[in-house]
Every structure is written in C-alpha cells, then in structure tokens.
C-alpha cells in the first residue's frame, strides 16, 4: 500500500502516523518527493481500511499495490535510483560502461585489458574469477587468485571491479569487490540473495535464462528486503526457440523494467548474442531503449580466450564501439561516467 501525504505537514504528526503502522507490524518506507512525502507499507495490508486512512487530515491519497514486489516497485519510489560506485554514478541519466574479459586468466592479461578499456572510456572493469560453466570440464576460473589479480588491476588503473559470486561461502572473499555480480544461473538462489541483502555493496543482478521480469524483480526484492537497496538489474538475453544466436536479447525488457521499477538497468549484449559482431548493434539498441549502462566483454586475444572468446571484442573493436556509445549517449542526453 502507498500513502501520499499532503504538503507541509507537521513532522511530529507524521512521525506519530508512521509509528501507528509500525506498531501493527508493518515496515514503512519513506520516499521524499519534491512536494510530497510518499509512504510505502510492506506487510499484509488487506486488513487495513483505505477509507479510514484516507480520512486522516495528513493523507492526500491512498493506493493499493497489487505487485508482489514492494521495495523495487516504482510506485513506492517514483524517482529513479542513482547508485554511486567509487564516484561513478548509474541511473537517472548517468550511464556506465563495464568491460573486460569473461575470465581472469593472468594478472598480465587482466591488467592489459583494464588499461586498454579505460583508455577507450570504460567506467568499470569486469572479469570472472569464479566461473559457472555448463560443462564440469571447462575452465572454472582462478577463484581467489583471480580476485587478487582483479584487485591488482584496479590498483594500477583505479577502475572499480565487477565480478560474479557463486555461493554464500564466498562472501568474505568479496569484501574488497566494488560490485558483486549475481549471474543468470543464480538469479533465484534465494539463500545467496538473502545474504547479499545484509551487505551495503552494489549488486548487479542478471536475469535468468528463462525468467520473467516479475521474477527478476522478485529476486531484487530478496536483496532489498534485507536492507541493501543498491541493486542494478541486468538484461542479458533469454532462451528462446531461436538458434542463430546464443540467447535472444529482450530489448523490450529495458523500457518495461524502467516503468515497473526505479532501479538502474544495464544490458549485456555480449552474452545476449554470443557473437562479437552483433555486440555493437545490440548495444546501440539498448541505449536507444533507455538502458543506464552496458556490460561488454573484451579480450586481448579472443581466439585463445579460456571462455567465451567468440563473443569478446578486441580492444581495438571496443575502442570503435566506444566512439559510437559516446555519440549515442550524448544524443539521448545521458552522462557517460
């Protein structure tokens, strides 16, 4: 339920009004607008009488929310959320570029790629230390050693790092990671999501291979319900009957998520297509659709990459892509940072 209060109401009366709901077991989220204060009630509001609440002198309007997600719901939080990661903002017109190799293969490799993508204009460095792979015989990542290599690359380039977590036992290892990524296979790992909710670190949540947008937002809700509101949604393509691409990029997910939620939305065109030459047109489509950022895979030697080489751009290709990204974000009034 959402309660919109009238303008310029006495603070003491507002606090007493809120405490009345809290005493009934509801969690009350506040969202201060330009002229009004919006209260979001989380709990079983079916027992509340709208007419009684509406009769209160403080109240301008009362609305019931049908969607099961509350914290991630734009109706609770009309203004776009802006998340700051080491000085790089995302959301509400702030656009970020996250790039780097699928897997960290060596300190030399990750540092070289970091320096190249930063020179081209990337905001943040991605790289997989723990790699969830379909085959148990595929390269699984360098694990804790890979995290150390990412941190070393950050030390040399001053780029915030983004890397994927696999399970709750790894959380202590991610204390010095700037953005923790939850991959598509873990989108509904609810125990992991709950634990990440206890952190105050930004979480990049990828949509599952065959999950609806509501399911994605419910997964975000698990994190936010724990108190961590720093969630970034990521559309990375879904599985369809089409076989010419690795996945099908659901470009319609971007405007729909922006309508349903206040959280920033990033698009991963690399995993969506699985084909390097398709990254550029999908990236341009994502910007036009309203995305707040892109995550693009870049490898110094894609032909010999230990994972996902076919979808990785070379540093030179990424540099050409960045020229178009800069032009497109400027055209749509976004600030690349």
Summarize the structure.
It is built from ten helices and 15 strands.
End-to-end Cα distance, whole Å, is: 36 Å
Q: What's the story with the biggest beta sheet? A: 8 strands, parallel, barrel
Overall structural class, as computed from helix and strand content, comes to alpha/beta
| Model regions low in confidence, pLDDT < 50 over at least 5 residues | none
Instruction: Report Rg.
Output: 21 Å
The percentage of residues in β strands lies in 15-25%
Number of strands: 15
Number of helices: 10
Order of helices and strands: EHEEHEEEEHEHEEHEHEHEHHEHE
- Summed over residues and divided by their number, the pLDDT gives a mean of 94
Shape: elongated
**Fraction of residues in helices?**
25-40%
Strand order of the largest sheet: 7-8-9-10-11-12-13-14
Key features of this structure:
single chain; 337 residues; alpha/beta; 8-stranded parallel barrel; 10 helices; elongated
């Amino acid at each position: 339920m959402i309660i919109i209060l009238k303008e310029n109401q006495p603070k003491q009366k507002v606090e007493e009004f809120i405490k009345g709901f809290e005493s009934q077991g509801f969690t009350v989220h506040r969202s201060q607008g330009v002229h009004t204060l919006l209260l979001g009630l989380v709990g079983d509001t079916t027992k509340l009488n709208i007419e009684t609440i509406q009769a209160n002198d403080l109240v301008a309007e009362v609305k019931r929310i049908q969607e099961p997600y509350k914290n991630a719901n734009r109706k609770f939080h009309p203004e776009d959320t802006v998340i700051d990661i080491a000085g790089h903002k995302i959301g509400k017109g702030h656009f970020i570029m996250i790039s780097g190799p699928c897997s960290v293969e060596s300190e030399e490799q990750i540092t070289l790629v970091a320096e190249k993508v930063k020179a081209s204009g990337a905001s943040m460095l991605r790289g997989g230390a723990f790699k969830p792979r379909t085959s148990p015989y595929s390269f699984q990542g360098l694990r804790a050693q890979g995290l150390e290599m990412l941190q070393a690359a950050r030390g040399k380039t001053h780029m915030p790092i983004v890397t994927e977590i696999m399970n709750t036992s790894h959380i202590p290892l991610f204390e010095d990671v700037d953005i923790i990524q939850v991959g598509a296979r873990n989108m509904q790992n609810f125990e992991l999501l709950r634990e990440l909710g206890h952190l105050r670190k930004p979480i990049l949540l990828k949509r599952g291979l065959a999950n609806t947008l509501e399911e994605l937002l419910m997964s975000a809700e698990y994190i936010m319900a724990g108190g961590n509101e720093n969630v970034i949604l990521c559309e990375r393509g879904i599985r369809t009957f089409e076989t010419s691409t690795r996945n099908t990029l659901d470009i319609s997910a971007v405007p729909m998520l922006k309508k349903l939620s206040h959280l920033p939305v990033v698009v991963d065109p690399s995993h969506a297509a699985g084909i390097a030459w398709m990254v550029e047109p999908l990236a341009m489509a994502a910007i036009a659709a309203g995305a707040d950022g892109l995550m693009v895979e870049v490898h110094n030697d894609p032909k010999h990459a230990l994972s996902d080489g076919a979808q990785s751009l070379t540093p030179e290709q990424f540099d050409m892509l960045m020229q178009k990204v800069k032009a497109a974000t400027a055209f749509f009034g976004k600030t690349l940072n």
